[in-house]
Amino acid sequence: MKMPSIGEIFEDSCRRILECWTALNLAAENNWGGENGMEKRKVLIQGVVDYCLSSKCPSASASLEEQVYADEIRDALVHDLEHEFHLLLDDDSETQVASEIARLHTACVKGDLDYVLALQQRLFKFSTSESKPLESPLEILEAHSQDASDAELLDNYTDRTDYAETENVRDQL
């Protein structure tokens, strides 16, 4: 099986962060911005991923060479939530989500797979039963020997997970 690129790893993890954000999920599920709330949610998530990858790096398998800044991501989230869902946040969750995405981006740039796997573990805890992979990241890691390389661990993790679209999750990251 093909090893995912660092851009694909980032995209998957970034998408999961946003899918675990309660404010976005409530706005989408309750159609606060009018009809098609879930479709607007998908567009918003893809927009953030595209900003971090495509707009910074031209190829779909982006090398993540340029830095992204949490305040830029936060500003985009605030703008999109206000315009698409008529939602003004006062809980500072947009700052937390943006900071997590920026940290993820930095970890991917540095090749810090330990951080990425730890993040995936935390996100797994807040997934609904419909969106959980067949095994948790911890179960997969524990099933391997201690001398397995990061690439082998990540390859096995990505091969054995089958996530459905997350709809009802918490924003605690």
Count of discrete domains: 1
Average pLDDT works out at 76
Quote the beta fraction: under 5%
The level of helicity is 55-70%
Category by helix and strand content = mainly alpha
Shape: globular
Keywords: rRNA processing
Pfam families: WGG
GO biological process, one term: rRNA processing
Protein name: Pre-rRNA-processing protein TSR2
Walk me through the structure.
There is one protein chain. The protein contains 8 helices and no strands. The two termini are 30 Å apart. It has one domain (6-127). The chain has 173 residues and is mostly helical. It is globular, with a radius of gyration of 16 Å.
Write the layout of secondary structure elements.
Elements: H1 6-19, H2 22-29, H3 37-52, H4 70-85, H5 93-110, H6 113-125, H7 137-142, H8 150-160
Helix pairs in contact: 1-3, 1-5, 1-6, 2-3, 3-4, 4-5
Question: Features of this protein?
Answer:
single chain; mainly alpha; 59% helix; globular
Question: What would a concise description of this structure say?
Answer:
One of its GO terms (biological process) is rRNA processing. By secondary structure, this protein is mainly alpha-helical. It contains eight helices and no strands.
